[in-house]
Amino acid sequence: MDISFKTEQGHFNYRVAGLIIHNGHILIMKDETSPYYYIPGGRVSLHESAEEAIKREIKEELRIDVRINRMLWLAESFFVEETNGETFHEIAFYFLLDLVDTSIFERSNPFVLKENGEQRLRFYWRLLTELKDLYMYPLFLKERILNLPEALEHIIERRC
After folding, report:
1. What is the three-class DSSP state of 35?
2. Are 78 and 55 in contact (CB under 8 A)?
3. What is the C-alpha to C-alpha distance for residues 57 and 92, in angstroms, rounded to an integer?
4. Quick one: 78 exposed, middle or buried, by C-beta within 10 A (0-12, 13-18, 19+)?
């Protein structure tokens, strides 16, 4: 069971995301319902660590194994989801990932995979310097992607 729930005041999410960076490019994605780009990842399940969750989510979405290099950011985000107008409070851990399987570099750009045989996920390799001009969330990533922290940073982002 995902640690995500809805109340009268809005929706809460506990999420993980993984940065996969190669040759000055970062892997970002879009799904069929989102007008914006974001970092691969997903919700953490009850009794699952954030580290276990990011490895599972990347395996489910990209069908590859990863190693965690380090955690970069703990982000608290407060926003209104553009696709449905719902208010969110989200806690997310952002990890820098290393690939165990580098076959992902051989895939086309963009490449499309289906998650659970249903929703189509479209993945793109984009230059790190291009992020500032993209319609992408979280916003803090656009500023911080060119200078990754050596130690964990706590970010609070309000978009509502």
Report:
1. coil
2. no
3. 13
4. middle
Contact (CB, 8 A) for 98 and 55? no
16 — phi, psi (to 5°)? -125, 150
Number of neighbours of residue 19 by Cβ within 10 angstroms: 21
pTM: 0.94
Q: How many angstroms separate the CA atoms of 114 and 121, rounded? A: 6
**CA–CA gap between residue 144 and residue 128 (Å, rounded):** 10
Question: What pLDDT does 79 receive?
Answer: 96
Pairing of strands 10-19, 4-7: antiparallel
For the chain, the straight-line distance linking the first and the last C-alpha, in angstroms and rounded, comes to 28
- pLDDT number for residue 117: 67
SS3 63: coil
The residues of the chain scoring below 50 in pLDDT are: none
Q: Which amino acid is at 27?
A: L
Q: Decide: 78 and 92 in contact? Cβ < 8 Å.
A: no
Q: What is the pLDDT of residue 115?
A: 73
Name the DSSP letter for residue 103: G
